[in-house]
């Protein structure tokens, strides 16, 4: 690995100081701090505000007024700030503290939890505190695997790896991740991953439909792994509570017909989780470019300004439509 630059070292020491400081704050202060930090970030990030507004226009049309959309976008920044602050605070978690700070619903589905030992993929969105859903799963289910995130500054990656493994999860790199997870599931293991990862069509993605018509190229990794190993897919979501605690809701194992394609399974997963975005839109990450590609044919007026036409996206879309017709025949 190349010698870190001065800027990379500066970023490392700065983030290390922030993590150290946040870890020494009382938990109750994080929500108030997140409201301030998120609001500052929202007003300072002009480009992010434009993306968030365009996404809200695409997803909801005229359902909300411009003023309401601006408030949803700002609260989305505050939600993300709270997610990051609580991740920085996570080394303070313990099984006892978790009982005080979180409520878990859905553990009455024993088919997918530790007492049975079946392999499970827990699936969530960039919605509310998705980081804690992974961390707390080590207590309510069992420690699992976490894929390391690649950072331009590798020094920062080491900090996030330490935080994300602070409750007992094992960290491993993205290289050969599919093989590693395949072996993990075949041995009865469990892990969590995100469903709304917008990827390039060349990266083995599948097309799903979101918000009543917007096409998105999403990862199919969870679907492919489940079909190869027989693992259950259990959608999960997190909701903040008025008293500062978080509520983790685990949905029943996903049911899909025999012979379903990876695209169909991925769509079913999205269908379970999208209603929560409609119910509490401020909890989703609106400043992220969810719809980077759009079809070259048909009415694409709903797509955000940053969406682009790409031949590889059209090709995957045609393949998806053909598979649907072949299944229906």
TrEMBL record:
Pfam families assigned to the protein according to its UniProt record, in alphabetical order: Lip_A_acyltrans
GO cellular component: plasma membrane
UniProt superkingdom: Bacteria
Listed GO biological process terms: glycolipid biosynthetic process
The UniProt record lists the keyword Protein biosynthesis: no
Compartments in which it is found: Cell inner membrane
GO MF term set: acyltransferase activity
Alphabetical keyword list: Acyltransferase, Cell inner membrane, Cell membrane, Membrane, Transferase
Main location: membrane
Database matches in CDD domains: LPLAT_LABLAT-like
Protein name: Lauroyl/myristoyl acyltransferase
Species the sequence originates in: Terrimicrobium sacchariphilum
């Amino acid at each position: 690995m190349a010698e870190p630059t001065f800027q990379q070292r500066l970023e490392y020491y700065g983030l290390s100081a922030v993590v150290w400081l946040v870890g020494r704050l009382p938990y109750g202060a994080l929500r108030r701090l997140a409201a301030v930090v998120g609001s500052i970030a929202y007003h300072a990030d002009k480009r992010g505000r434009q993306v968030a507004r365009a996404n809200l226009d695409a997803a909801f049309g005229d359902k909300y007024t411009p003023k309401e959309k601006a408030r949803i976008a700002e609260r989305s920044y505050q939600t993300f700030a709270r997610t990051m602050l609580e991740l920085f605070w996570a080394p303070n978690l313990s099984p006892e503290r978790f009982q005080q700070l979180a409520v878990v619903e859905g553990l009455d589905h024993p088919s997918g939890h530790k007492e049975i030992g079946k392999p499970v993929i827990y699936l969530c969105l960039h919605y509310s505190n998705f980081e804690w859903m992974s961390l707390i799963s080590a207590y309510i289910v069992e420690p699992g695997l976490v894929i390391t995130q690649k950072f331009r500054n590798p020094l920062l990656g080491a900090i996030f790896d330490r935080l994300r493994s602070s409750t007992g999860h094992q960290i491993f790199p993205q290289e050969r991740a599919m093989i590693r997870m395949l072996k993990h599931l075949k041995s009865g293991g469990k892990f969590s991953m995100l469903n709304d990862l917008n990827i390039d069509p060349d990266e083995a993605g599948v097309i799903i439909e979101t918000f009543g018509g917007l096409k998105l190229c999403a990862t199919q990794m969870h679907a492919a792994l489940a079909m190869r190993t027989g693992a259950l897919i259990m959608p999960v979501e997190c909701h903040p509570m008025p008293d500062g605690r978080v509520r983790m809701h685990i949905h029943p194992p996903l049911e899909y017909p025999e012979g379903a394609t990876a695209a169909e399974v991925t769509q079913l997963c999205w269908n379970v989780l999208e209603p929560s975005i409609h119910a509490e839109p401020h909890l989703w990450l609106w400043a992220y470019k969810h719809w980077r590609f759009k079809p070259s044919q048909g009415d694409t007026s709903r797509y955000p300004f940053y969406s682009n036409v790409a031949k590889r996206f059209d090709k995957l879309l045609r393949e998806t439509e053909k598979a649907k017709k072949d299944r229906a025949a």
